[in-house]
């Protein structure tokens, strides 16, 4: 499969963009208008990018990459929080789940993602959903297969078990690019 290794730092966003282009993900140099999500899910959605790995690097990396390629970061935490404030049955249900510190069902999370995808520019960068292989299956059944997964890994460390389980089907399909983060990124950030 296609495997790219880039280091987070000054050139990581450009290298991340190159990995997206190599995978066939539709990118733009400027923000683009949102395209409606088709009713029937395609086999592979070349507008959907999953970012897995270390939580502390994902958010900043996604924001910078989305700005570079004209895409959108879709944070499940932010989508749930916003939807819980909307009057109506869904908002009340989400608010109740949040107040009880219960997990939001994956079906509802996928519904929120589909709604967000219909209103913001692609490519869509997901960094906090799906977290499990079962959720990945639900997501792909609804919106099509993930175009590429960018797997952030710290230099010198192996991948965590949860990320490996989540990414296994994507890795087998050749849709994972490894992004290496670590000491060199810190040095570049301090320069």
Can you give a write-up of this model?
The protein has helices spanning 12-23, 55-69, 76-84, 89-99, 106-117, 133-143, 161-172, 183-190; strands at residues 5-7, 44-53, 72-74, 124-126, 145-154, 176-181. It is 47% helix and 18% strand. Mean pLDDT is 80; it is low at 1-7, 31-42 and 183-191. The chain is globular, with a radius of gyration of 16 Å. It has a 6-stranded parallel β-sheet with strand order 1-6-5-2-4-3, sandwiched between helices. α1 (12-23) packs across α2, α3 crosses α4 (89-99) and α3 crosses α5 (106-117). The chain is an alpha/beta fold and 191 residues long. α7 (161-172) links the parallel β5 (145-154) and β6 (176-181).
């Amino acid at each position: 499969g296609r495997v790219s290794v880039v280091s987070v730092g000054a050139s990581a966003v450009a290298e991340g963009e190159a990995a997206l282009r190599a995978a066939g993900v539709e990118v733009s140099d400027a923000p683009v208008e949102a395209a409606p999500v088709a009713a029937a899910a395609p086999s592979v959605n070349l507008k959907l990018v999953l970012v897995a790995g270390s939580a502390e690097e994902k958010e900043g990396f996604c924001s910078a990459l989305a700005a570079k390629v004209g895409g959108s970061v879709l944070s499940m935490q932010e989508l749930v929080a916003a939807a819980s404030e909307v009057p109506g049955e869904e908002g009340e249900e989400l608010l109740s789940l949040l107040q009880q510190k219960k997990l939001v069902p994956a079906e509802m999370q996928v519904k929120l993602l589909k709604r967000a995808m219909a209103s913001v520019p692609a490519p869509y960068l997901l960094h906090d959903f799906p977290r499990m292989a079962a959720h990945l299956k639900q997501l792909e059944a609804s919106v099509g297969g993930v175009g590429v997964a960018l797997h952030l890994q710290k230099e010198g460390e192996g991948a965590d078990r949860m990320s490996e389980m989540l990414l296994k089907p994507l890795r087998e399909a050749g849709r994972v690019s490894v992004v290496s983060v670590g000491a060199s990124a810190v040095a570049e950030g301090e320069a």
